[in-house]
Amino acid sequence: PSVFQLGLTKVTEQDLSQAIEDEHGAKYRKDGKKLLKVPDTTSHYNIKDGTEIIGDSAFFGCSRPTTIAIPPSVNTIGEEAFPWCHRDWDNYYMQNKIRQEDCLISF
């Protein structure tokens, strides 16, 4: 999987203004394939099946969510998508798991 692909992960004002919102207030691109932003109050979140891209800074403002579940459909993760995790994404993504003292994310 590619973790950073220039341009694919960028979240624009137009994306946000045309976004669809799920029952938790998370915003997705209107085709549902790109997670744009989750609410700052998010502590547990299951990214929707079919999502392929997690946008830049998607979880910015969330103070260390307890768990985030990422479906197998995700193949691209934007810069600072999980700002409290500072890891080698290529290495950890390939192992299908990212674990750090301040971060628990499962694929």
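(the above was protein one; protein two follows)
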Amino acid sequence: DGRAAVSTLNGDVWIVTETEWRRFATGLYEPLGLAVVGGKVMVLGRDRITRLYDLDADGEADRYESFHAVDPVPGGYRDVRRYRRGETLSCLAFPDCVFSVDEILG
């Protein structure tokens, strides 16, 4: 739909269009990257993967779900990648961190 999701190391997630930046979430622990899967924003933070929900469709996350808690992410990892092995989400920081789209969409 032409929008992009952007995370900042300060703990914010923004939804960006050609004309507007709107904060979608705040207070996350050093977001290192994100992926949007099935309309759900998945954020890799320093301590966990958080799934964000906009329950009332007002453009701001109302619920922060700890999808996968981990020990702090080692330095040097800064992204989440979506691969087309079937439909999975994986992150470079955790070799065993591979989830099916069904698990993500819950």
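Reviewer note on protein two: The mean pLDDT is 78.
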